[in-house]
Design brief:
Layout: E1 13-16, H1 24-34, E2 41-43, E3 48-49, E4 52-53, H2 54-64, E5 72-74, H3 82-95, E6 100-106, H4 110-120, E7 125-131, H5 145-162
Parallel strand pairs: 1-2, 1-6, 2-5, 6-7
Antiparallel strand pairs: 3-4
Helix pairs in contact: 3-4
Length: about 160
């Protein structure tokens, strides 16, 4: 219900969704870009932290881990939800002429994010790539408090999306 990812495919662009904070998403996107899955890794921006874009901080983190800065595109939009993020990301993808896209996010976020992107851009070929995290524990989220909280929050957001809230 919450997981809907698959293996990466060659694409026109990679979008790394904001909201991670651990660096796992941007490092996965960077790895895919470096392996040649797409020519650009777009770091989506959720907001600003200490007057800096979240996307800029993510790129700086990836560059600090050895990835070339030329691989990335920083965004400066304000996004308060996955729908906001998708709306702005889709506009950028279309402006760049992209047709096939990899979207990187946490594995528990792949189903909802994929539905949103496909609903807003049925003309794009969207492929979700999920990263695992300690809280999700490979689907064993019920074994730890953070996993339980992540599941509850994502389940609630999924329900709200179904109800178009």
């Amino acid at each position: 219900m919450l997981e809907a990812d698959g293996p990466p495919v060659k694409a026109d662009a990679i979008i790394v969704l904001a909201g991670d904070g651990t660096g796992g998403r941007i490092l996965k996107g960077a790895e895919l870009g470096k392996e040649g899955y797409a020519p650009v890794v777009i770091a989506s921006n959720g907001g600003y932290r200490y007057a800096r874009t979240e996307s800029g901080l993510a790129i700086e983190f990836a560059v600090g881990h050895g990835y070339p800065s030329e691989l990335f595109l920083e965004t400066a939009w304000q996004a308060d939800s996955t729908v906001d993020e998708a709306t702005q990301g889709i506009a950028l993808l279309r402006a760049r002429g992209a047709h096939k896209v990899l979207i990187v996010t946490n594995v528990w976020h792949t189903a909802r994010a994929g539905r949103i992107y496909r609903r807003l851009a049925p003309d794009l070929d969207i492929h979700m790539v999920g990263i695992s995290d300690r809280a999700w524990d490979h689907g064993n989220w019920w074994r730890n408090r953070n996993g339980q909280k992540e599941f509850f929050l994502e389940f609630t957001k999924t329900l709200a999306d179904y109800l178009h809230m």
